[in-house]
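RECORD TYPE: protein structure
NAME: TrmH family RNA methyltransferase
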Amino acid sequence: MDYIQSAKNPKVKQWKKLLTKKGREQTGLYLLEGFHLVEEALQFKNEIEEILYSENIMIPSHWNMDHVKITTISEEVSKAISETESSQGIFAICKKHQYEEKMMEKGKSFLLIDAVQDPGNVGTMIRTADAAGIDLVILGDGTVDLYNSKVLRSAQGSHFHLSIISMSLQKAISLLQEKGVPVFGTSLQSAESYKKVTIDDSFAMIVGNEGNGVSEELLQTTNQNVFIPLYGRSESLNVAVAAGILLFHFQDSLKSN
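PREDICTED:
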């Protein structure tokens, strides 16, 4: 087992690069932090490159870390690579998922995310899509990186359970419609209440940017656009909350058919 004490160690500098999108793209790796996420990662050992843990913490006795490279690090190193205020002192360096567009061929339920930039919102939507049993999440242009540390923390390990790809939503919509999947946009203009929509055997739902919603260009290509009626004085819903309402409603309709 290796031990790294100094935050100036070249390996630490490489780990810190994984906190940037550029560093993740160059290496094909990303950094997970925290007991829950590392425990989730251990269920997919082939995706783990290395586990790092601070010398002052105890590894849970039920964890099976056979055949996993382990490095002990000092508290100084732990603080250097952590992006949380109170680090739990445990990390995993993992390989990025290599999902492909062909994943679209098998699914019946899809969440398309258009230029959502808040990592907490994206992570929460991934976690919600996982809970709702959605088959595939598609991250469109302008959406925050899947492996952003805040996205990973908000998703709470759901990125291990779901198929998630990044691609042009224009292309995704075209491919979905070619296979007969109706695509629904979310909009307050020229839209029906989501409660009036009938789902037969598949659906794709698009949710959009926090400030601007789904782009007008995409809304013009959908089969139908829907909105969620509001009964109070608020003018809008948080995008992750709206996605949760719509995904569970549409999935319930799909499962009942």
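COMMENT: The chain has nine helices and twelve strands.
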